[in-house]
Design brief:
two-stranded antiparallel sheet, 10 strands, 8-stranded mixed beta barrel, 7 helices, alpha/beta
């Protein structure tokens, strides 16, 4: 009997030890892919990049194949402040801006809707050089725009009659241009879709078809499809589609809501558990001048916890 009690005690002790080892440490949360992540939600950056972060599987509203694809990806993520400007700045300016709190830069690398088509400095060598300085790159592709796009400057680049074909073609073009700049597989490509009248049902269907086709092609070719738009139009539209269980949606959400405090997980049009974790960017200010190291740029400001380009 004493022997049996001893054995029973050993078994219980072993079970308790196993539970203790498996439990998450204090201040940590369990990610969907089983890895651990700090408890901070990204609402205030730590001012440092995290080049080597791991990608988490998408949450609700995604297909099983989408979840498997994202969980298997080796995607680099960044957490901190970013800026974007119409023209990629010269390398000298990027060196001077190392004195700022920014550690990531958005670059407009392609798309027929891109305002600054002539990029005098943007090249494979530029990408390598800024990465060598410690910068992380957020690549923006400004393709065809919604048929009900609001901006006058985008009226001549609206989606045509065959939205799915156009989205597929432009997704392929985005990947081709990204490769030419040295961006490797598992890099994010952010589709820039300016504000549009998403309450127009026909326009919304056309726009969603284009976005889904673009996403599917970018994903098929090994890259991560992201999406940039205003919070109250394109982003609200994507969240409505996500809640409805629509497939082939963007894997990362870059939402513009200006004149508000930077915050990743208190955006009113997005459920907190959507595009989470490490899959959000909040552009909280735009068209502002900043000067660092004696160089002035007109920029948009963003708070980031999201994938960044991998450059070779």
């Amino acid at each position: 009997m004493r022997c049996r009690k001893t054995i029973t005690g050993l078994v219980l002790a072993l079970a308790l030890t196993t539970l203790a080892l498996c439990a998450a440490p204090t201040g940590a949360t369990s990610r969907p892919d089983g890895r651990r992540e700090g408890s901070r939600d990204g609402s205030s950056p730590d001012g440092a990049s995290a080049p080597g972060g791991s990608w988490a599987a998408p949450g609700r509203g995604w297909s099983a194949s989408d979840r498997g694809r994202a969980a298997a990806a080796e995607v680099s993520t960044f957490r901190g402040w970013a800026f974007d400007t119409c023209h990629a700045p010269p390398l000298g300016t990027m060196r001077r801006w190392e004195s700022s709190d920014y550690r990531a830069v958005g670059v407009y690398f392609g798309g027929r809707g891109r305002a600054c088509k002539r990029q005098a400095h943007l090249s494979r060598d530029w990408m390598r050089a800024v990465q060598g300085m410690g910068w992380r790159v957020l690549p923006l592709y400004v393709g065809s725009q919604s048929p009900c796009v609001i901006a006058d400057s985008k009226q001549d680049v609206r989606i045509g009659q065959d939205a799915w074909r156009e989205g597929t073609s432009e997704g392929r073009d985005a990947v081709s241009r990204a490769k030419a700049l040295g961006m490797q597989r598992d890099s994010p490509l952010y589709l820039d879709m300016e504000a549009y009248g998403y309450r127009n049902e026909e326009c919304a269907r056309t726009t969603l078809a284009f976005v889904r086709a673009w996403d599917r092609e970018v994903r098929r070719l090994g890259y991560v499809p992201g999406f940039y738009s205003s919070a109250d139009s394109g982003v609200r539209h994507m969240e409505t589609a996500r809640r409805a269980g629509v497939r082939d949606l963007p894997e990362v959400m870059w939402f513009a809501r200006w004149r508000t405090s930077p915050d990743l997980y208190r955006e009113p049009v997005l459920r907190r558990d959507a595009w989470h974790p490490a899959r959000r960017i909040h552009q909280f200010a735009g068209n502002v001048k900043e000067r660092h190291g004696g160089r002035t740029l007109l920029i948009d400001r963003s708070l980031v916890h999201a994938p960044v380009a991998q450059v070779r």
